[in-house]
Amino acid sequence: MPRTLFSFRGLILVFGLVAVGLPLALVWQLGVVRTLNILNNDIALTRQGELAAAAVLQLQLDEETGLRGYAATHRRTFLGPYERAQTLFPERLAELQQVVDEMGTPADRKAVGDMRRMNAEWQRTVAEPELTGAPGQAARLLRGKMLIDRFRRDVGPVDAHFAARYGEALAQRERTIRTTSFVSFAAIALIMLEVLVFALVVARMRRELDRERGFVETLQSAASVRLVTPPYLAVGTAYRSATRGTRIGGDVYDVYTIDSDRTLLVVGDVSGKGLAAAVDTTFVRYGLRALAGEGLAPEEIVRRFDALYHAANPSPESFVSLVAAIYDRRDGSLAYTNAGHEGAWVRRGIDVEQLPPSGPIVGLGSVPFAAARTALGPGEFLILATDGLTEARDPRGALVPADRVRAWLAAADARSPQSLVDDLAAFATRYTRGRVNDDLAILAVQPLP
User: Fold this and answer.
1) What strand order describes the sheet that includes 251-257?
2) Does residue 206 sit in the same domain as residue 264?
3) Are residues 81 and 112 in the same domain?
4) How many domains does the chain have?
5) Could you tell me if 272 and 400 lie in one domain?
């Protein structure tokens, strides 16, 4: 008698198991659906809290940036971001308060209350006196920076709590889905199908991994453009990515020869991290190069790039702080526009002069940018850096003081731009104890005799 693949008794056993197992699996699946619904609601609310916290911080920074621009120039056009942020701030803070009341900790609720008081104090002691022209501007702006730093420290733990809860909810949802798949496959006893599906998934994952690896390598090659420096400039650079396993991130620097006498110098910091931010850095580099090639002044380059970037990234969470400078060797002048970027200095001997912002961050759209000018002679250094230097944090989370950064700039080895950059990167690494929490880019330029 020939052997058959399945015996009659075996088929009866299989059908019996299916008849018993399917109702049990259905009941279990209904419970899983309810669990997933709860998890999805938690994920959505947590994400809303993260976005609200980011928006509150950005609006406070917009108020500060707009006010600083007005304080420096007394032009009311700089008050556009300030007035917009002042209008939107209560609504987004109320949204954050609602999420914190529903799912936050007592520390989160205290932090939100501190944010509200900090903003009110900033308005009362900094913004209102500045707008009325009261004396004591320097002390007032210094106090404003202190309040903004305290505001950031209050936002940080709230955002960290939301991020941790968001990650936990995602992990729990993933575990639930995996368990559901396993039980479903076991209930219908399709082991061979499961093996086949697993093999197909592995093959697909390998193809996707190969494709993603190729994409990362291509992107790293595009983002890591070799600089071709003009013969009249010495250049030093440093770059450190916060994204593990890659050499790219959200910071960008560039040295681009416009013609035989003029060179474009750029350092920028794109919002976000990782591959998504790296794509934007490529856009920043080549967009500014294209505009500089048209012979435009720095303020016009940044103004037109702001319109391009805003059109390509209309989300309010997408922005760039940058410095775009043009060095002219004929008269040793440096014309620049500082779009909300803190890390810009000129070092002459051991004297360090900071180049203050002359406009808001890029990405707001239809915002004017002012030009500024300084001299850069042989032996002097232009130093541009991102917040991986100016906002380095020690292991306890404390920001590096501004006076310490200035001391680093004055003490760095001035034998060449590269030795100066290497010293600055080493100072930041020692301060953070080697922890990489943010991308870091440093560009130092020195005219040659």
Assistant:
1) 251-257, 262-270, 320-328, 333-339, 372-375
2) no
3) yes
4) 3
5) yes
pLDDT tens across the length of the chain (449 residues): 344 444 455 556 555 655 665 666 666 666 777 777 887 888 888 888 888 888 888 888 888 888 788 878 888 887 888 788 888 888 888 888 888 888 878 888 888 888 888 888 888 888 888 888 888 888 887 888 888 888 888 888 888 887 887 788 788 878 877 777 776 666 565 555 545 544 555 566 677 766 765 555 555 555 555 788 899 999 999 988 776 655 567 789 999 999 999 999 999 999 877 667 777 888 899 999 999 999 999 999 999 999 999 888 877 788 999 999 999 999 999 999 999 999 999 999 999 999 999 999 998 877 889 999 999 999 999 999 998 899 889 888 899 999 999 999 999 999 999 999 999 999 999 998 888 778 889 999 999 98
- Residues of the domain holding 214: 190-223
289 with 379, same domain?
Answer: yes
